Each structure stands twice: as structure tokens, then as C-alpha cells.
Amino acid sequence: MYSYHRFLIFLLILAFCAAPTFSLAQETPLVTDKVLNIMDRVKPEVNAELSAKGLKSGSNVFIRIFKLPGELEVWIEDNGRYRLFESYPICSYSGYLGPKLKEGDWQSPEGFYKVTPGQMNPRSSYHLSFNIGYPNDYDKFLKRSGSSIMVHGNCSSKGCFAMNDYRMEEIYTLAHAAFMNGQLSIDVHIFPFHLTKENMYKYRFSPWIGFWKNLREGYDAFERSRQVPVITADQGKYVVSGKIKVAMSGKKK
Length: 253
Known about the structure:
Oligomer: single chain
Number of helices: 6
Low-confidence stretches: 7-24, 247-253
Strand content: 15-25%
CATH superfamily of the domain at 26-194: L,D-transpeptidase catalytic domain-like
């Protein structure tokens, strides 16, 4: 009996050793000499701006984009809530108000997206860029197509959101620092305009008003709490739960 038990233990050890191993290391953004040089140049000014506003480099980041009036907002987490760090003018975006429908329509998307460290691209032909993650589950359910939708530099767009190079360097530096400090993904919420009661009434005859009413649920949730809401997609509709995404990173602070 004793030998039999020893044999079972041996088999268990053998099976464990032969099993595939999985890395628990967090994904980090690709780093190149180019991006290191850029961040070394940009960080002192960015850190000074953060300090002046009582914020810290490496804190969690949240991004909102408004096609009208053409602004990209960077929000920084502070004690569990987000504060507006900077609103950057967008150089250019393609298309009209409304979502992206298919590959090649040169339309910029609207909706709720996420950027992971692997979507950061320091080798972009448009200076620096990150992929917003279009199409998401909502888009896929509606059979919407497209790829490589970016926020990037070079001030020129074909379906993306183009920024001035220096502003893109600041945004990229803030995102990179957040990822390196443990943020797992950055939420990017893209709206046609500020979804206020007045603007919703102004555009009430748009064919996209139903879609925008759905987006407004996520917009209002953040406006009320200054916390990023948990948003999922279900059968071609965004669902904003009562839960709030706790502003925590993968590292202890």
C-alpha cells in the first residue's frame, strides 16, 4: 500500500511538472529608443503640470473624446475619483456625427472602448499611437467592421483621431506611466458631443438619437460620480450597471 501511494504521488508530481506554465507578469507597453527619448523630454513638464494640479504621474488614466467641439479629455484618478487633467484639441477626425459602420467608410467610431498595454504603438508611422479597440463586442454584434482605429499624432486622419505631435507625446507619456504603475486597461469613451439635455434636444431628429440616448447612460454615470462605470454590451445595447469600476491598479499604492 505504501509503495502504491508513493507511485500516485510520483504521477501527480510528474503531471504538474509537465503541465504548461502561465506567466503572472503583467503586460507592459512596448518600449523603443524613440519613445524613451520622447518621454525623457516630456516628463519634466508633464510632471510639473500634474503636481500643480495636485495629481501624480502613474495614477490611473481615463479618456473621453468629443467629436464636437473636437476635444480629447485626459482624466487622472485621485483618491478614487477622476479629475480633469487636460482637454486637448483634436487636429482632425474623419466622417460625421454617428458611429463607424464598416471598413473603409473613413468614419470615426463612437462608443465605449478600452486600451491595453499591447495596443500602445511607439513605432507608429503617425509619430505615436494607440489602438482604441474597435470593433468592441457591441460593434461585432451589429456586424460592424473596421480595424486599426487609433488616436495618433501627425495631425492627419482617415478614420482615426489625430493629435498634434507634442500633445500626443503628453497623452502617450501619461498612459505609459499608468500602465507601468499597474493599470490594466484605459477606458476610452467616445461621444458625438457632450450629451447634455440641451444637445440631445438639438439633435433630436438625427437617425442616431436612439444610439446616443444609450451612450448617454454611460456619460451621465461618469458625470454623476466622477468614477468610470462598468459598461458591457448585450444584444446590440450598451448596459451600464450600478457598479462602479474601482480605480485600482495592479500594484499596491
